[in-house]
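Hello again,

I reread your note about wanting to compare the complex against the isolated chains. To keep things tidy I'm splitting this into two emails, and this first one only covers the full assembly. Below are the input lines as submitted, including protein chains and any nucleic acid or small-molecule components. They are followed by the predicted structure of everything together. The single-chain runs will come separately.
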Amino acid sequence: MSASERLLKSHRVQDGPLRILAASGQLGYGIPEAALQRGLARRPHLIGCDMGSIDPGPYYLGSGQMAAPAAMVYRDLELVLTAALAQGIPLIIGSAGTAGARPQLDATVAMLRAIAQAKNLRFRLTTVASDVAPEQVVQALYAGQLQPIGPMAKPTEADILQCSHIVGQCGTETLARALREPTDVLIAGRACDTAVFAVLPEMLGYPVGLCQHMAKIIECTSLCCSPSARDAMLAELDMDGFTLESMNPQAHATPASVAAHALYEQADPFEVDEPTGTLLLQQAQYQALDAHRTRVSGAQWRPRAQATLKIEGAARVGERCVLLAGVADPTLLAELNPALQAVEARVRQLVPGDWALHPHIYGQGAVRPLPPAQHSRHEAGLVLEFIAPSADLARTAAGVFKQNLLHHGFPGRLCSAGNLAFAFTPSELEAGTAYRFVLYHVMQAAPLADIFKIDTCTVAGSPSEVTP
Amino acid sequence: MLSSGKPPTLASLARVLRSKNAGPTLLTIDIFFQDAAGYALAAASPALSVPAVAALYQADPAQVQRHLLPALLAIKYALPRRLCAGTPGDGDVYGAQQHAPMLDVELDVVLDVALDGAP
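Full-complex prediction:
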């Protein structure tokens, strides 16, 4: 019998608390092993891991590449896979490979297969693909069923068709459908962080508001603690609330730290929209059990008649080349913007074509606006982004710009041998393809059962062959 | 604190002052105060009103939300990002350093009498 069937058939809510172990909030950056082992010793009923986010920006969704280093992803997957199989409990991983697009889901599954091969493991694997067909989004656009989340420009049909990947965030409704299949390991493409941890508790009949609140807090593991940490987090859930306990003895879940975490990365502190409803936190209570554990209760749930779908899409902007240089001459620092404009005008004469320049001047307001009077006169760092249809053009613009800025004759110049300090050469670095988000929208009346494709198979490694 | 004549900065009263994306289109700023007195001063201060914070971030005040959370001794803001995260030209993909303009905000003490007769 698979791990999911065993749990769903054997556990009743009256049997006592359900123990959910959140092993990672960002699988692939190194799961702390000691805390994971302490968590496993508590005999959890399931292990959940979040593997992705939209936070790292449009590159990962656009390119289909993983943000985390492959060797570390392999290590982390091996840790949680062997742990879950050894204990015979379900392992659920959401937002495979950072953005949860098809190439990232496939790469994650390929690693699981490689681990199974290397360690001779056998398990039932269920996958959820989260890719949304561009034509379906275009249809929603014309039907008036695309609503931006925050200030997002209305996309054109061409914008949508230019997206290299479009994904939808699946929620508990889809993961529950996937878990109808006998499953030891469930890997979802793009998924709501919370659904990963809430789906099995909801299927077992625990109150949805408590399941969702618990999931919202533990999806970042011990980030909700004081001091915050990255170690595994255990939630013990019953019908009236849940108890939170970090598996790092030095990270304490206090009422203040847990309540504060409910605000994290969230625009509204009291109402959290999820696909199947809204989590209501006005009545939430946080109570210290001891110095290390906090008991949480009181969250309510307002279900929605039809589950909504949040979609994300990224499109290529061009190829990026970045010029890195320092400036220390106070006269140039006082007139840096006019100097950059003058050089750009000259370079546009020399290098025709559709290239764009995005200057970031560190020390003079690159991270936040800074009045000219406060601009650094000591030194500044230039990060000049060139984006063009081809890598050659971006590199050409960057290279010619560098040489022209190096020898630009600004008014009052004393440093006639050169204006720039390079930490290394070449100082212009090819940075691959640049992407932008085109879609961060709610798609209404989306046919979820069509969009999210569920597949299931048995993964079986074989003993490594002994070659003579 | 109030007798020194110099208004306190937000940084001097906060236990946590952080910013982060709430999705790629919005920025959220959380301030947790060290004590109830600091929270009360901040919650009443015009320097932390929606129009003042909108001006600080060059945002449309109509799009800035503020939540007062006395039980947590916290104030939370949500506001639009100038550029969608990671769009070429953006300078802070995670939005994790946009708390900085708040640090030096001086909390002008509001006395009821001082407001009398204000236009």
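For quick reference: Chain B touches chain A through 37 residues (CB under 8 Å).

B.
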